[in-house]
Design a protein that fits this description.
Length: 124
């Protein structure tokens, strides 16, 4: 009679391997979503800074609540390093428009660079 092999029964190591695969897949999905969230936050920060620079350059009415909100957000996001009041990286104090374009523009680019680096580090 020919020797017929019986199918191997599922062993505990097989089950752990399957559960490990599920855990790896879940962790990979979580890391991917977290990386996307970090990138989104960086882009929103850069948009506030760029819009604030544009509003200053166009001399938008700072008494308008929407303009005030964007300018306040941009002022908070510049972290004091890229300030437009003469304390920023470039001191173009007599011309606030140029100061806002240069300093807030650099800050926006910085947020995008740091956001993309963090995205690449976090993403699996």
């Amino acid at each position: 009679m020919p020797d017929v092999k019986k199918p191997a029964a599922e062993t505990p190591t097989d089950r752990r391997g399957t559960m490990g695969e599920k855990a790896r897949k879940a962790a990979s999905t979580l890391r991917s979503k977290l990386a996307s969230l970090v990138w989104l936050v960086a882009v929103v920060c850069a948009l506030f800074l760029a819009t604030g620079a544009l509003l200053v350059t166009l001399r938008a009415n700072p008494d308008n609540p929407a303009v005030k909100f964007v300018l306040d957000a941009a002022d908070a996001l510049d972290l004091g390093i890229f300030s437009t009041n003469g304390e920023g990286v470039f001191d173009l104090r007599p011309e606030r428009e140029k100061s806002a374009l240069v300093n807030w523009g650099l800050a926006a680019v910085g947020y995008l660079i740091v956001g993309k680096i963090l995205d690449r580090v976090i993403r699996p």
